[in-house]
Amino acid sequence: MTPQSPHLQDQFLSVCSRDAAIARFDAALGPLSPREVRVPLAEAAGRVLARDLSAPADVPPFDRSGVDGFALRAADLAGASAANPVILRLTGENIACGTAPLRNVPPGEASLIATGGPLPRGADAVVMLEHTDPLPDGRIEVRRAALPGQFIGRAGSDLARGEVLLRRATLIGAREIGMIAAAGIAEVPVFARPKVAVLSTGDELVAPGQPLAPAQIHDANGPMIAAACGENGAEARFLGAFPDQAEVLETAMREALQGADMLILSGGTSKGAGDLTHRIVAGLGAPGIVVHGVALKPGKPLCLAVCDGKPVVVLPGFPTSAMFTFHDIIAPVLRRMAGLPARGVHEVSATLPLRLPSEMGRTEFAMVALSEGPEGRVAFATGKGSGAVTSFAQADGFVQIGALEDHLPAGREVQVQLFTPALRMPDLVIAGSHCTGLDLVLGPLAGAGLQIRSLAIGSLGGLQAALRGECDLAPIHLLDPATGAFNTPFLTEALELLPGWRRMQGLVFRKGDPRFEGRDPQAALARALADPECLMVSRNQGAGTRILIDQLLKGARPQGWLNQPRSHTAVAAAVVQGRADWGVTIAPVARDAGLGFLPLAPEHYDFALVRSRMERPAVRAFREALALPEVRTALERAGFTPA
Ligand SMILES: Nc1nc2c(c(=O)[nH]1)N[C@H]1C(S)=C(S)[C@@H](COP(=O)(O)OP(=O)(O)OC[C@H]3O[C@@H](n4cnc5c(N)ncnc54)[C@H](O)[C@@H]3O)O[C@H]1N2
Ligand code: MOO
């Protein structure tokens, strides 16, 4: 199916608004009524009740004692007190739980009764054992009066026969299981979980656990979407990742759809020539594709189809896009099929500390992480683009930006829709440059139960957040070219420097490359600059390493200088994969990547502490962790030099 010339593609995406997409999908799906099945009580947890459950019998089935004591007639105890006890004879019967009483309790007598024991005929009250005294002749003295009905649980008082104990559409949990069991019901009518077949498409996909060949990535969408289906009442069957081969894919999709109530694919729905899933979907059944292209960001290439009554969905390949479109558009359908109520919306308000750019023409969902600033909650954007998967873990929720806005200004108050109903603000907010060494310091804090939010917004971004008092500390490695000093020149009165560690920066190359191997850095650099075939990888403007690179280059602009990734790791990857021959990164990254390393200069990775927040327990804990001998040893072992 792949066209001869991949650049000659169909322009099949015709974008409609989110609301129009939902309306078209709903209209094609028609009413979605969940099926009912009966499951044993032991399997009912997590299911949704398909009909009202009525009690088949009274609970409790008989009047019973609520205490260990004596069943008796309240009238016998009129006027009883410690000073004036009443003496009663015993019937001789001892009513245990699970035994039906045989004897009457006539006036002037009492029967010993256990908590939960059935009340004998004649008795109308129970007194507690500790309010009585045995007499040597076998009778008892009762030291206080009793009200009729005292300590008696009446038949049907918990549940009367015929009473509705749980309503339809109730989500069954442990408490509900207890009620159903008490009512004596062994089989529970619940909604059938819709069966969803999930499959990923893409030649580049490899199952987690399998090694990656060049240009391959691990399949994130498949497991993620299957789990999200489970969270929304469905029974997902993940069928694996399939290559972009029309026949293989079509067979897999037809088989999957046969045994399922819904089919969800991801990938291959955008404009690429290899994007063939939508073509197969179009032939799976009537009416076929009803929406292809929604004015959502992320999520534009979403494809919605109904094939002979069953929903078939192609989510965008980018994991963030797949997840947002699933939750926004697919989850509500799934919940209706599963008989689950719509998910509640949980919102908090917060202020944007920074301008949040947005694309005009698409409703945009921007993920944010919350922190407590001096003037209330602030929401930092955490998005790394639709292709990223880690933004979810760092975000508390998302902000919706209307299709007609191209940005939200700094200072704007926004509503943040939370991912989870309960928001727990982090105990420690770190914003700035990330370093793998930081994870070694944070380990003990997380182990002590502190919730830590680490926002990788670069040294300068972190410094500004710290100056605004919106984080507790900012990890920075900023070189002042004028003085050659690190970090201290950038501080103000409001900040205090906590020394972190030194990271040796050096020139990296693939081991064995004779242009670098065994030379001193300056000689290697001269050799590299003299060779027009020798390709470098640089760093982004603003990075400390970039300042070092520009100092080394003295104005030279070798091949590859415009390749300016934002991280040490990306530099190492470019060299390892041969997209560049040399670059500058830090020793631990070079070592982990297996690259040759020629040391240049140590970089100071320190922490700008916000003075007004320094007494917070989590900040103190951070300083203590940094000084721990085991943390220092771990840092050294990882290739850092603690300050
Ligand atoms: N010329 C255009 N290119 C793109 C457009 C466009 O309008 N014009 N739309 C972009 C948008 S927006 C999105 S979203 C993506 C979605 O593309 P597809 O749905 O066709 O997905 P793929 O091309 O197959 O993959 C995109 C991306 O995601 C990775 N991927 C795919 N499946 C998985 C998986 N199961 N687990 C992890 N990652 C996955 C894949 O490797 C690609 O990197 O298209 C833009 N392009
Ligand atoms: O819609 Mo794409 O989902 O912008 O990333």
Automatic annotation (TrEMBL):
Residues 197-336 form the MoaB/Mog domain. Pathway: Cofactor biosynthesis; molybdopterin biosynthesis. Its cofactor is Mg(2+). One of its GO terms (biological process) is Mo-molybdopterin cofactor biosynthetic process. GO terms for molecular function: metal ion binding; molybdopterin molybdotransferase activity. Its EC number is 2.10.1.1. It is an enzyme of class 2 (transferase). It catalyses: adenylyl-molybdopterin + molybdate = Mo-molybdopterin + AMP + H(+). Transmembrane segments: none annotated. Keywords: Magnesium, Metal-binding, Molybdenum, Molybdenum cofactor biosynthesis, Transferase. One of its GO terms (cellular component) is cytoplasm. InterPro entries: MoaB/Mog-like_dom_sf, MoaB/Mog_dom, MoCF_biosynth_CS, MoeA-like, MoeA_C_domain_IV, MoeA_C_domain_IV_sf, MoeA_linker/N, MoeA_linker/N_sf. NCBIfam families: Glp_gephyrin (NF045515), molyb_syn (TIGR00177), PRK14498.1 (NF011068). Catalyzes the insertion of molybdate into adenylated molybdopterin with the concomitant release of AMP. Belongs to the MoeA family. This is Molybdopterin molybdenumtransferase. It comes from Falsigemmobacter faecalis.
